[in-house]
Amino acid sequence: MAGDDHAAHETIERYERIWVGFSLILIVVFVSLVFYAVSMHGGHIGHAEPRQDPQKILAMEEFANPGIEQTGDNSYQVNMVAMAFSFVPGEIEIPVGAEVTFRMTSRDVIHGFQVRGTGINVELIPGDISSLKYTFDRPGEYLMICNQYCGVAHQNMLGRIAL
Ligand code: CUA
């Protein structure tokens, strides 16, 4: 009987070791996938600059007169203000292959900025400037969507990028 117990105990230990090993492998796989995704597809995670007074940000030239400006041969900067319930500018036209730097903030509440068909997905927060770079290689129309609930007409908060 004692021998059976011992054998059972060893069997359980073996299973435990297998499970621990399996969990460790999973962790390595998940971490590798994150690194792979960021290195292959670029981390289009908007990085926010330190928070400031929202009114100060809105008074900055780029946000007082939001729009598109050409900053180089093939590079553009889009200065955008989000508000309930639109993006300004709401229609963006740029050439194919252009590298676009987005600088964005919100005038009122937290909005989302997602561009369908790309990895772009950032939060726009009053008092924060979210910025990211993206190169649009494929011609077509891209839908800009607010993906943070921001009020009654949230679902109508849309825009368009055309190349
Ligand atoms: Cu803006 Cu939802």
Keywords:
alpha+beta, Immunoglobulin-like, five-stranded mixed sheet, elongated, 33% strand, 2 domains, binds dinuclear copper ion, 163 residues, 3 helices
Topology of this protein?
Blueprint: H1 2-41, E1 47-48, H2 54-59, H3 61-64, E2 67-70, E3 75-83, E4 86-88, E5 91-93, E6 99-106, E7 111-115, E8 121-124, E9 130-135, E10 141-145, E11 158-162
Parallel strand pairs: 3-6, 5-11
Antiparallel strand pairs: 1-9, 2-3, 3-4, 6-9, 7-8, 7-10, 10-11
Bound molecules: dinuclear copper ion (CUA).
Dinuclear copper ion (CUA) is lined by residues 85, 111, 146, 148-150, 154, 157.
The CATH superfamily label of the largest domain reads Cupredoxins -  blue copper proteins
Structural class of the helix and strand makeup? alpha+beta
State the major sheet: 6 strands, mixed
| Terminal-residue CA separation | 77 Å
* Unreliable stretches: none
Helix content: 25-40%
- Unique ligands: dinuclear copper ion
- Work out the helix count: 3
CATH domain fold name of the largest domain: Immunoglobulin-like
CATH class of the largest domain: Mainly Beta
How many β-strands, per DSSP? 11
Helix and strand sequence: HEHHEEEEEEEEEE
Shape: elongated
How many domains is the backbone divided into?
2
Radius of gyration over all CA atoms, rounded: 24 Å
**The CATH architecture of the largest domain:** Sandwich
- Portion in beta strands: 25-35%
Average pLDDT score: 90
